[in-house]
Queue: 2 jobs
Job 1
Amino acid sequence: MTQSQVQNIPVNPEVQARAAVLLAEHEHAIWTRTDKLFGRLLLFEWLASIALAMIRAPYIWDAQLHSIHQHVWMAVVFGGMLSIFPVALASSLPGKAITRHVVAASQLLMSALFIHIGDGRIEMHFHVFGSLAFLAFYRDWRVLITATVVVLIDHVLRSIYLPQSVFGVLKPDIWRAFEHAGWVVFEDIFLISSCLQGAREMRGIAENRALLELSYRDVENKVIERTRQLKDAQADLVKVARSAGIAEVATSVLHNVGNVLNSVNVSANVLTDHLRRSELPNLSRVGQILDEHQLDLPQFLSTDERGKMIPGFIKELASCLDEEHRQIVSEINSLAAGIDHIKQIVAAQQTLAKRVNIDTPAQPAKLMETALVMQGIASRTDIAVIRRFDSIPPVKFDQHKVLQILINLISNASQSVSVANPSQKQIVLNLSCDDAADCKRVRFIVTDNGSGIAPENLARIFSHGFTTKPTGHGFGLHSAANAAQEMGGLLTAASDGLGMGASFTLQIPIFPVLAEPLCNQ
């Protein structure tokens, strides 16, 4: 972000306050670092001035003297004073304004010492310009003003009292001190401009950083708020999912119970029809006739035409009632099986949260036949049922879940062939093992030649709520697939397309029954 872009940002008091704090911290860090730098530099210059004085002193002003010159002592004493005091301030009060100005004055007085020891040589005056450049590291133009004032006073006083120590001649021009000061001011113009530019840049950086911190805080607050909202939404979704799960379980129960209720309804209608056509009323009329001829019963049975027919009629009636009883018992058994399966469906849903599988001995072929009977397919003459059952010994699995799936598949196959209405309605039931030598998984396959499944629907056929039936709800195959998965099995579908029929394969792991015989199957 450029300075012009920063200036275009609306003034925010909070940003300005934070920027002022950041700028002060940055400036203090620069001042402290530069104070320590000059502390080391002044100590080095002190030692350098002593070395220079010891080298040049015998040749300054009096070439015949070879003893230690007073300039050496000046370097030791005056240089030490110029170094120790600012070094102490840099250590005790780093970053303070007084430290900066004392360092500036000491540094320029150190330049005066070098010029004095160097006999006013022009090369020594470069130390002044170098010192000013080093002082610009503070990025504080006021320090340069202090240094310039010290240079000007030093040059004016020494041009009057010790001109040779500053200009190298005994009688310099009076304006020469101001000429030197002018060059110092010339350099100050550029250095002060650089300091002001650096200060503006630091202020811009501070404002940018303050703005970034404020933006980061706002973003962080928004993230916290969005996180809280997401957690609330997640909690709501959990509640909705729980409600949806409860609704799905309830719908699954109702759907599976509805499938079984079809067979229960068929059995109830058959029982009603048997009772309506029962021969029991004829037996009652025979009883009434016998009561009427109770006093002359032997004569009635031997001489009367109606009496002669009664023994044969009773025999024929007994045969009819026996057949009727057999049919009623069969339908009652089917009705009882349907009711028991409804009970098992409800019980299985009640234990669903515990994921408990009730593995009991069962005959796979008999389960397939039971599903046919419960759906009323076995008694229908318009649908050809082809059975292709391999010989599979009794095995253990959750037979009620398997029966629930088979009822669903056979019901769908029946509806599919009824809708497609081919010339020969056909349902093929296959029962086999994955390995004839060591059967570990049994396959139930229900194939029909009905309406088929479109290719784009095969991947969605087991999704919750998906159906291609005008009156369907999309719960049956979904619950069947879930039931297969709960048993560690798999339910798959295959079809060559619309009008080409469909095939559903249920594969489930099984456990052979080795010790005890199968009872009540």
Job 2
Amino acid sequence: MSGNLEDQLFFALGIKKEKEKEVFLNPDYEKDLGDPFKILNMDKAVERILQAIKSKEKVVLFGDYDADGIGGVVVFYDFFKKIGFENFEVYIPDRNKEGYGLTLGVIDDFEKKKVNLIITIDCGISDYDEIEKADGKGIDTVILDHHLESGLLPQAVAVVDVKQEKDKYPFDSFCGAGVAFKTVAALLERGEFSVTEGWSKWLLDVVCVATVADMVPLTGENRTLVHYGLKVLKKTQRPGLLALFKKLKIQKENVTVDDIAFFVAPRINVASRMDTATTSFNLLVTENSNEADWIAERLNQKNIERKEMAGKIIEEIELEISKSPREQRLLFFGNEKWEPGVLGVVANRVREKYNKSVFLWGKSGVENIKGSSRGDGSVNLVDLMSKIDDSFFIDRGGHALAAGFTVNENKINELGGALRDAYEKMEKQEVDRVLWVDKEIALGEITWSFLETIEKFGPFGMGNPKPVFLLKDLEVSGVKMFGNGGIHLQLDFQSDNKKISAIGFFMSNGYGLDIKKGTRIDLVANIERNTFMNRNELRLKIVDYKIK
């Protein structure tokens, strides 16, 4: 694998034309963000929202309970506050008590409050019955969503969702907060507001966090939103984000996509699982630094509790797997004592370790049995659940590789068998187990200029992964376990009298135990800049290794 690094990275991305290369390396806010009015039904949505603002109607911002939905609600909250519109309230449902999306009961509550307009953010596309009921009570709905339509579209005044089959907008991978941002941009363009031109860019800090947290592709317009969102994050004055950065020892001037993905987003998401999602919403909108400090500490503690709880569940699952009489192609486990709010994280960890689709369920603290699933790519999880009789589920939905479900209690003992039977009958997709590398390099090639070339291709994430490098026949000069209880692995190497470390997060269990000083390995890794605790050092991030 010889050749110019930049050319090889472009080749891996499938970018060949010089103009495309220039656009990729230098995102332009004005040129690279499309006209929001070219999104299907955007004009109808803007017209209805402007009418509500002008007439001072009662509006509800109804958002999903994750970092994406919360971020999208914050975008609208900031917009309404900026233009002086006060007749609105925010409603984020309780994840465990109410579940995802609108409910029939909440529509009754909105009628009592004399709500005129509901704006759903990061949800709504599948809420046909609920929106039909709202319409019957004289409550209009504007849907701002990014999920796939399923069957009939709700009877909303406007459905803004670039995933709709009829939508011809050239980019269809926005997260919910991205759709909210495009809508606010359209409102600012058409409405007559006394807002400084360019003010909307200050919303990009939460749009950036939401986009990274929701794991949508960081390509096209998302790349531009996150590129500029990182610039805004480095200047953000939101007390909540500043408090969270301080708590997590993140220097805001050096904040990265990894900081968001691995530290910030989990704290924002933990609220809906271990507390209430409004806690995270309040963190992002508070103007009081003392309140921000209190919320940041609460979210951090809840995240610690989540990790401890998840760790215990993983131990129980691994014990069950060790006792399993035969190899299972689909893993299914549950316990009434398990907290449903942490099962998504656990399912992800189990899937990563065993390379299999995983279904987990629990009931602690909630009325009905709820579960989470994560897929290995061999089948679409939503399609899989649709193959099972409706009597099993109270609710189900999600994405191809990540889904949730609520189960009828009298059916839980049969669900595992039904899922496995349906799985065996479905046509399987080939799951790629090959590890691709972008370039083979020597340890001595890892320099600051080498890293700077790599960083030009960021921000990295879904659709634009970090470059992966192969380093052959390295001699390990040091091995260390570190972190809470020694959960992380560090391998040290010497190059020209200089130490270079390679970090493997959550790799101490099952990794590193077979490596000692002097062991020779082939290493597959990313190259990154470590700024933790005011450091500024080159390091490797372990993807995999093989002992020679």
